[in-house]
Write a structure and sequence with these properties.
Number of strands: 8
CATH topology of the largest domain: hpI Integrase, Chain A
CATH class of the largest domain: Mainly Alpha
CATH superfamily of the largest domain: Intergrase catalytic core
CATH architecture of the largest domain: Orthogonal Bundle
Mean pLDDT: 82
Strand content: 5-15%
Number of domains: 3
Order of helices and strands: EEEHHHHHHHHHEEEEEHHHHHH
Helix content: 40-55%
Structural class: mainly alpha
Length: 389
């Protein structure tokens, strides 16, 4: 694209479709490298989504900012335009696998539910730190979620400076403070080993083995569902955690720290081999394939249909797979595992997520720290038969 010198607003028009609703096209002129002018177009959305021309023009603001890159004189930028351009940019990053589908979904959620309703109609220069801080203080969400919103606002202003919508300066969101980001609204549920056994007794396969993996290794449910038998090296007694399965999507793990080798105890390898004998076989070698699709299960359905009912029946509350990750972390503490080793076993990018910095962890140290957890859970496991639903 040739840099333009004059700001161009562009226009919208309805494009008739044979199948489905008509759509709004945002149109603008663009100069090619040989000096010719050609008309370009971008699909804004359907006429059902945007019922008037004014609505369609407002929705095209993100693309309007893109086509006017490099223009020195421009009208005040609406914050909604920055939001639209940011989402277009992040969509491209997701398509090139620089960010995950879940990350993009979380951005969209925060923008549509909180940021756009409050700031969408403001000009970029009107979104000032004092106003943002006051808004966040009054927002009826957890301090941790406020911290996520503040981080996204910071990222939005960084992008505004990168795209020359603002002069390069100190990011104004640096001045916004959110108290109690590390505090939780509810204390996370940590199970006693007897409670873990009671849960396991109520579960059928494959959910029982999923929970065993979560308890013994602290894996996230998306990582458990993303496991393939090819990830396991039973000779070396390790499993490589390298992907997540969320719904129909397979994603690379979000940080290099999440992608790591996890040590396996011989006793747990025996449990896995028992499950391998009876689980469905698929071309992709999924450890937990759904009989209906041959692909990984949906985590939300497992929680709603199995874990929550079991937790309520046993008087443990509405448990989920993250309950087992919290439990694993607490059990590591109880067994005296050094904090640096805990960070590696939890596969946190920053030790502040685990707690304070204590150093790195070797494979031997990780195996030593994890062994008591596996022994705790499997104390009575090897004598029990595995039944499948």
């Amino acid at each position: 694209m040739v840099k333009r010198t004059r700001y161009q607003y562009g226009s919208v028009e309805i494009d008739k479709r044979v199948n489905g609703p008509d759509v709004w096209l945002y149109r603008w002129w663009e100069s090619t490298s040989d000096g010719r002018r050609t008309r370009r177009g971008f699909t804004v959305g359907t006429v059902e989504q945007y019922t008037t021309e004014a609505h369609a023009l407002k929705a095209a603001e993100g693309m309007r900012l893109i086509i006017n890159d490099g223009v020195a004189q421009r009208p005040p930028v609406p914050f909604s335009g920055l939001l639209d351009r940011f989402l277009l940019d992040q969509k491209q990053e997701q398509e090139s696998e620089q960010i995950t589908h879940n990350t993009l979904a979380s951005y969209r959620s925060m923008i549509s539910q909180h940021i756009r309703p409050k700031w969408g109609d403001c000009k970029l220069g009107e979104v000032r730190p004092t106003l943002v801080q006051d808004w966040l203080r009054k927002l009826a969400v957890s301090p941790k979620y406020k911290g996520h919103i503040r981080s996204l606002m910071y990222r939005l202003f960084d992008k505004a400076m990168l795209w020359e919508l603002l002069d390069v300066q100190r990011n104004p969101m640096e001045l916004v403070e959110v108290k109690g980001i590390s505090k939780r609204r509810r204390r996370p549920c940590v199970l006693q080993v007897q409670d873990a056994w009671r849960i396991l007794d109520k579960l059928v396969q494959p959910y029982r083995t999923m929970v065993l993996i979560a308890l013994c290794f602290g894996l996230r449910i998306s990582e458990i569902l993303g496991l393939r038998w090819t990830d396991f090296d039973f000779k070396r007694s390790i499993v490589l955690i390298q992907r997540s399965a969320v719904g129909k999507r397979l994603n690379r793990l979000k940080t290099e720290y999440s992608q790591d080798e996890v040590p396996l105890e011989k006793s747990f390898i025996a449990v896995l081999k028992k499950w391998q004998e009876i689980c469905a076989k698929t071309e992709q070698q999924w450890v937990f394939p759904s009989p209906a699709t041959g692909r990984p299960y949906h985590a939300d359905s497992i929680r709603a249909d199995y874990l929550v009912p079991v937790g309520l029946k046993l008087g443990l509350g509405r448990i989920g797979f993250h309950t087992f990750r919290h439990t694993y972390r607490a059990w590591l503490d109880e067994t005296g595992a050094p904090m640096g080793v805990q960070q590696k076993l939890m596969r946190h990018a920053h030790i502040s997520t685990t707690m304070d910095q204590y150093g790195n962890a070797s494979a031997t140290a990780k195996r030593k720290a994890n062994r008591p957890i596996v022994q705790r859970v499997l104390r009575r496991e090897m004598n029990q038969q595995i039944s499948i639903q």
